[in-house]
């Protein structure tokens, strides 16, 4: 798969605007400021295809990137406290519409911050994915911010945190060093190769 050939397709702020699902989709989910845009830029070998913001809660649309016969879908981040109640409601409806409208979702890449335990929002999302039967992997961002000991401890902790979700592929990732980028690309190819 030629990841560098992906381009921004469109952004949508409401469920009714979503385009028909005609090709396999790989969705990227995670809380605000976990690094979804940085991850997308890294795996697509692009500097600023996905807009990176220093402000959490900035991605308020579902952003589609297309290439090589599939779509990568950047979902809005969840769990940002400073967002208004009406904005949270809109976000919730948008996500529900995306996941429940029979789209060709082949994989969900669930991002978590490797420095911290999974949040309640992370667990809610993982439980939802499991109950809905969506295949998912967990990518732990900001792995470069941990030393060797902290990293080993966090990986052991994560095994316990993910226990109730079955066998889950967990990949440490760093947008700085590129660690994990190739493994993520391999997972995307694995889940979309039959398309």
What does this protein look like?
This protein has 195 residues and is an alpha/beta fold. The chain has one domain: 3-Layer(aba) Sandwich (Rossmann fold), CATH 3.40.50. It contains five helices and seven strands; from the N terminus they run ββαββαβαβαβα. A seven-stranded mixed sheet has the order 1-3-4-2-5-6-7, with helices on both faces. The protein is globular and about 45 Å long. The relative contact order is 0.19.
- Strands of the biggest beta sheet: in what spatial order? 1-3-4-2-5-6-7
Radius of gyration: 16 Å
Count of the separate structural domains:
1
Largest sheet: 7 strands, mixed
| Structural class assignment | alpha/beta
CATH architecture heading: 3-Layer(aba) Sandwich
The helix tally amounts to 5
CATH class: Alpha Beta
- Helicity, as a percent range: 25-40%
Task: Provide tags for this entry.
alpha/beta, globular, Rossmann fold
Task: Explain the layout of strands and helices.
Elements: E1 7-12, E2 24-30, H1 36-43, E3 62-67, E4 70-74, H2 85-100, E5 105-113, H3 120-132, E6 136-141, H4 148-162, E7 170-172, H5 181-192
Parallel strand pairs: 2-4, 2-5, 5-6, 6-7
Antiparallel strand pairs: 1-3, 3-4
Short description:
By secondary structure, this protein is α/β, with parallel strands linked by helices. Helix content is 33%, strand content 22%.
């Amino acid at each position: 798969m030629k990841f560098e050939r992906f381009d921004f397709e469109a952004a949508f702020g409401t469920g009714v605007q979503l385009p028909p699902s005609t090709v396999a989709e790989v969705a990227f989910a995670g809380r605000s400021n976990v690094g979804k845009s940085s991850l997308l830029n890294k795996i697509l070998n692009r500097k600023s295809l996905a807009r990176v913001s220093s402000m959490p809660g900035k991605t308020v649309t579902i952003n589609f990137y297309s290439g090589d016969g599939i779509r990568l879908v950047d979902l809005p981040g969840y769990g940002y406290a400073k967002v208004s109640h009406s904005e949270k409601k809109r976000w919730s409806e948008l996500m529900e519409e995306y996941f429940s409208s029979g789209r060709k979702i082949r994989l969900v890449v669930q991002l978590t911050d490797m420095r911290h335990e999974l949040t309640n929002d992370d667990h809610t999302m993982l439980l939802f994915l499991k109950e809905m039967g969506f295949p998912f992997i967990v990518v732990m961002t900001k792995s470069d911010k941990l030393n060797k000991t902290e990293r080993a401890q966090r990986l052991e902790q994560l095994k316990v945190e993910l226990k109730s979700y079955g066998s889950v592929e967990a990949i440490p990732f760093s947008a700085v060093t590129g660690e994990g980028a190739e493994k993520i690309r391999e997972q995307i190819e694995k889940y979309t190769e039959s398309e």
